[in-house]
Specification:
The complex is a heterodimer of chains A (200) and B (202). With 200 residues, chain A is of the alpha+beta class. Chain A is built from five helices and ten strands. The two termini of chain A are 21 Å apart. Chain B has 202 residues and is an alpha+beta fold. Helices cover 44% and strands 14% of the residues of chain B. In chain B, a hairpin with a 2-residue loop joins strand 4 and strand 5. The longest helix of chain B has 17 residues. In chain B, 37% of the residues are buried. Classes of the chains: A alpha+beta (200), B alpha+beta (202). At the A-B interface, helix 1, strand 6, helix 3, helix 4 and strand 10 of A face helix 5 and helix 8 of B.
Amino acid sequence: MDFRTSVIDLKDTCIDHSLYVQCLQLRRDLFIANMGWNLFESMGCEYDQYDTPAAIHVVAHAEGQVLGCMRLLRTDNDQGAVTYMILDAHLGRIPNLPSGIMTSEVRSKDVWEASRLAISPALPTKYRNTLLLQLIQRAVTHTEQQGAKSLLGLMNPAFERIFKRNGIDAYKFGPILEQRDGRICVLRLDYASSVALASI
Amino acid sequence: MNLPVQAKFDSFGFVTLTKGQTPDDAITTFPNQWKALYFENEFYKNDPIFLFANNMLRRSGATLLSPDQMNGDLFDAAEQFDANSNFVSVSHYGGNTMVFGGVNTELDHRTISDCHNLCRATHRLDLARKLANLTNAQLDLMDLAEEGHPDKEIASELGVSMSAVAQRKQSVCSHVGVSSFRAALQLYSLDKWGGLIADKSC
């Protein structure tokens, strides 16, 4: 299957609005319609306090259709009572997420978080790993250009092994927690020690 | 364990049986003391929950027990262990059966289907959680199978024989408690991608 990745930065004057709206619609389908999370929804889209111009969106798409997306935010983001999703969850500020999820608090221009990772059901199962890895690689390329050295993500711990198998140095950066929707933990990806990312 | 049914019942428990397993050997969330008393008193002979499960044959379904069915020594004894039920759900998945019993006195025949769906989701989740204990070799097999590689390619990629691949598949099924590798693979995808794919079936 032929798909490509794009970066959507709301600060750019000529972004592809259709891709951006599809990302928010995919997130609505996943997090609200499918998983039943109590999130804000409007006009068929899901968006929250982290969807500001500081956020960058990485999108995988084919023939104009979004197949997967994730949102990136620098961990030194500070909007008063709002920082970034993983830290705010860690501090107990997000009702839908558990607290105490990180080994230690991170606030650094060198570390970014990836959140709201969503994949379309239109993507056949056998391409899921490939698409996820391409999203990660695009996120790494983009954030590395901004000086990033690591990426944090809250996801199923099964992905630690999948990342490692594909040459990405990923490790647990907090406890594994049992949630209604399955197991989750914060994974940290370090760029410098990742064989697969060195070639990007 | 955080389960989808939790908010719906004042108390609940379930029994899971793999193909060919008898109830006295089944895995259960009910207290051991209750399990011992249940078999010691041969309650299973007249238990309306297991009678319903047997009558369902290999079909999934749910029902509410009538006051007459909940009258007797079995329910008096069960109450002491929070093991009584007015709602029963039977779920089948890949050769594994879950018999669920819970208490929700507000349910009626129009609303039990929602609870039954939650019970089925609980069954899949309960099975999927066993995947957390698979070895790395077994998980590599699952990833390659998920990517659609035929056994020959999987064997080549993992550097093992075709019979070793077959053995690993069998071992995964035994570990999870299902009789079909396809069902085990579906559970693996459900667990891995459940929070990332906008599709209930994953």
